[in-house]
Task: structure prediction
Amino acid sequence: MKILVINAGSSSLKYQLIDMTNEGVLAKGNCERIGIDGLITHKTDTHADQHEADFPTHAEAFRELVRMLTTGDHKVIADMSEITAVGHRVVQGAEMFSSSVRITDDMLADLETISDLAPLHNPAHIIAIRACQSVFDKSVPQVAVFDTAFHQSIPQKAFMYPIPYEMYEKYHIRKYGFHGTSHRYVSAKLAEHVGKPLEKLKIVTCHLGNGSSITAVDGGKSVDTSMGFTPLDGIIMGTRSGSIDPSIVTYIQEKENMGPKEVNDLLNKKSGYLGVSGVTSDQRDLVDAAAKGNARAQLSVDLQRSQIKKYIGSYAAAMGGLDYVIFTGGIGENSAETRRDACKNMEFMGIEIDEALNQSVHGDLKDISAPNARVRVMVVPTNEELLIARDTMEIVNA
Ligand code: ADP
Result:
């Protein structure tokens, strides 16, 4: 069975074709500048191709990626009938979707009713899903996999905000949490790797990339997570502030004479590592700048690492124990310095990293703890596309 995994934005469409017999990636790529002009990047084991194209809508992008998969030197399947199903990443499923579902007309109508909760993402997903349906035969199952679904197990005491209850009833304002596919994938992968039942483990998963979130996974279920109503909440990120005192918002609005859209922009696009350092949102560049003596670059990584540490501590307290800490995402998998500093001085709670092991991680799943550390610190590379493909296969087979 071959499954096409789609991660669509308003002007882009990332894809992977996965062969489920060995879970290998046959091809992957990205259609960009949809609605502007068009550019496709396509890679297989033996070929890499990039060319301009005409993508007035997502439908033309789908047709072009199918053409790349089925013709020429970059061909990996004979024709599109080899694609058994399509799995779509959907950012917001709200309280409506607590697991992956098969896409139907009714389901899409329901999904449309919650677009307000993720205006930058969900409308684009729906447009892409409809475009995909127009290009593929109706008999090809389409499945939606939600970033929020894994966090629907969070209890009310952790998902409610202490604002008037009517805000929850009227506008569905609550913590939803994001990156759920990644937190679910790495926690399950770890349990499989160490040969222990996930139901018995207390894990803190740190997904650190351009967007970052930290989750308490107790017995395989998310019981709390750092992102909230939107992906702006939680720890400092590339350009996002993470949690701040809410009154800062109105204070800046008054002082800088800004409207809600401008403050939203300031907090989402001009804050985080970029805002604090004043130089970059990229972790590698930040570390380079800090090494050259840039004090604000150093400050932004110090903020990041102390915040990670506080989440680990508070989630261990919330779960009443801790067996594993997982680092994943571009930063979590690659930055030994982040892992080292975030776990520094944590021996009191059983966390101790072996620095030689920490430095020896190169894209592999690895235990980087000191031999006698009670809590094991692990690096587990994430694979959200694979989990989307697995969910899709399961739903198709059911
Ligand atoms: P996204 O959230 O967009 O998927 P990624 O998970 O790819 O992002 O993470 C991107 C971040 O990972 C960037 O800040 C990048 O600098 C960082 N990163 C990638 N490789 C390294 C590395 N070797 N050392 C430190 N940071 C790294």
